[in-house]
Amino acid sequence: MTEGDIQASVRERLAEVGLDNELDKMPLDLSGGMRKRVGLARALALEPSILLVDEPSSGLDPITTLEIDNLLMNLKAAKHTTMVVVTHNIPSARRIGDSLVVLHEGHIVVQGKAEELDKSKHEVVRQFMESAEGRLTHGVI
């Protein structure tokens, strides 16, 4: 790529994650949510068909978490990208996950839609799904 192509790609990716006005900021000047968005922009630069996202909302306040969730859902729809999202945030997993997988002690315990997992008789699954601060260990979109 030429330098101009690289700059255009950077601008386009930052615009996709809502940071097109932050191009001149240094990393230390970015909030936690902005840093998560930059990470997504960097991952999107290669236009992957599958995107692995690890704890996209960890350490973020509920409002920024919702913004990141909405960003992931919009990117999924616009880019038709399959996403594998690892999260401990049950409300977030419910919002962004088409299919959820619960791991316990390194094994898949259950897989399905959130509504299906809500009906599970498995004690660990019930604890995860009933808890607003549960420890869902794997969400798959």
CATH 2nd-level architecture of the largest domain:
3-Layer(aba) Sandwich
Spatially, the strands of the biggest sheet line up as 1-2-5-3-4
The CATH class of the largest domain is identified as: Alpha Beta
DSSP summary, beta strand count: 5
Number of domains: 2
Give the low-pLDDT segments: 133-141
**Helix/strand order:** HHEHEHEEHHE
- Give me the CATH superfamily of the largest domain: P-loop containing nucleotide triphosphate hydrolases
Measured between the Cα atoms of the first and last residue, the distance is: 32 Å
- CATH topology type of the largest domain: Rossmann fold
The total of helices stands at 6
Gross morphology: elongated
Please describe the biggest sheet, giving its number of strands, its sense, and whether it closes into a barrel: 5 strands, mixed
Name the beta content range: 15-25%
Rg, nearest Å: 17 Å
Describe the structure.
- The structure is a single chain.
- The chain is an alpha+beta fold.
- It folds into 2 domains: 1-47; 48-141, Rossmann fold (3-Layer(aba) Sandwich).
- The protein has 6 helices and 5 strands; from the N terminus they run ααβαβαββααβ.
- Strands 1-2-5-3-4 form a 5-stranded mixed sheet.
- The longest helix has 18 residues, at 62-79.
- The model is unreliable at 133-141 (pLDDT under 50).
